[in-house]
Design goal:
Length: 346
Amino acid sequence: MRVRKPDCVTDPKLGGEEEDRFVMVWISPFAIKGVALGMKAVTINQYGDPSVLTYTDVKRPEPKSDEVLVHTRAAAVNPVDWKIRQGMGEMFGLQLPIILGCEIAGTIEAVGSDVRDFKEGAPVYAYVSLQRNGGYAEYTIAKTDEIAPKPESLDFENAAAVAVGALTSQQAIFDTARLQGGQKILITGASGGVGLMAVQLAKANGAFVIATASGKNENFVRSLGADEFVDYTREKFEEVVKEVDVVYDTVGGDTLERSFQTLKRGGFLVTTVTPPSQEKAEKFGIRTAMVSVLPSAQQLGEINRLIAAGELKPHIAMVLPLAEVRKAHQFSESGRTRGKIILQPG
């Protein structure tokens, strides 16, 4: 092909004026195929506060045979993101530098050779494994058992606010604690990204829902379906809530410790934060567990049906450009957001 020499390049062998000169260049098609495509992403090269988050250019990943490459249109911020940033990366087997983010929505850019159920261009959403670099990027790798078709009623920002909260709550409340219709459940931190999904899922399955949050969020939490509300800033929930079948704790710390007192004997306390005391569980005659969310395309399919039926809705606290990720982490760490913080790559 004929390529005009760039104006900034001079070649003494050519002589004369440069602007009308051409050179013949042959570019191997194999060289083009081998070019490493780039993308914008947020990386951390060391652990620390939000200042270690760097918006930069990195190599675009390529899907393996059982993977897809997702063009990320929206990515959610979750507490696990800033906990990894603070130093928990090694716990998940990650090595620096790390691209954070595990909750995304976007369109499929490319598929691996063994992928049959997804096609290029399909809109999807996902919770992707924490063992890989993640979703704070223009492109993200996902396994086929981590993704599902995007709910038709949701845009990409709202779709990115679903997977972690819904999957965590489904696996904790029903798969682990075995909550049944007609039983009572106490949900702490009910206005957060996980708690608000838990309220809706428990209500959709016929449970009596008692929720805690600050008073300013009462109307919001009740709109999700909570039957009773406790303003933790004005009263101690363990003094007014008794004999529940299940406690779902999304707060941890002192809130977790006080939750034991609200359960009936034989009840179940499940938390997403820290392992509960087994000694205390024996004292109160209850069962306990700590859950960590697992990817599940099958459960995302069930969640899609609830969304289509209007029984499950995400809620967004704010949407920020990916380049403003430091601000997003600061808001998330404050613990005062209602719903999810969403980042938009590109």
